[in-house]
Write a structure and sequence with these properties.
alpha+beta; CBS-domain; two-stranded antiparallel ribbon; 6 helices
Length: 159
């Protein structure tokens, strides 16, 4: 959306991925990993039967403990492990009208790869770094200086 001063404000709803690929807490880790590989995502929201977000599971969660150490002193996690056992509970979420610059600031500060977008408590989208990067590549966002200022990164790399 362009304002009178020429500044562009991009909202989560403008660039979020939808429909969202998600898993349930009782999804086997192997199935969730296959979904990430097939879909090309780095994270999946975990939702309850009412489409409420109860967690998020990422590549690191799904890989951690799955490869046995060479000395075999630490066995690999059982293949029957469920997403509920490895997911991050109560993840950061945002609403569709949230400003993308603010969301990116949160993502960078907390080292998050994706943030579920919820409306009235239900999952409606996912905003991933890839979605933001797509806009950067197409030049659809504000100038680099405005973006950096809004994301709270001004002077951070100037030392």
């Amino acid at each position: 959306m362009r304002h009178d001063d020429g500044e562009v404000t991009v909202k989560a709803r403008d660039i979020m991925s939808r429909p969202v690929v998600w898993v349930r807490p009782d999804t086997p880790v192997s199935e969730a990993a296959a979904m990430l590989v097939e879909q090309g995502y780095s994270s999946l929201p975990v939702v309850d039967p009412d489409d409420g977000v109860v967690g998020i599971v990422g590549e690191a969660d799904l890989v951690r403990g799955r490869i046995p150490a060479q000395d075999a002193s630490t066995p690999a996690a059982p293949s029957s492990t469920l997403v509920s056992e490895v997911m991050t509970r109560s993840p950061v979420t945002r609403e569709p009208d949230a400003d993308v610059a603010d969301i990116v600031g949160t993502m960078l500060d907390r080292r998050l790869r994706a943030i579920p977008i919820v409306e009235d408590g239900a999952l409606v989208g996912l905003l991933a770094r890839r979605d933001v990067l797509r806009c950067v590549a197409h030049g659809d966002l504000t100038s680099a200086e405005v973006w950096r200022h809004r994301a709270g990164l001004v002077d951070q790399d100037r030392g």
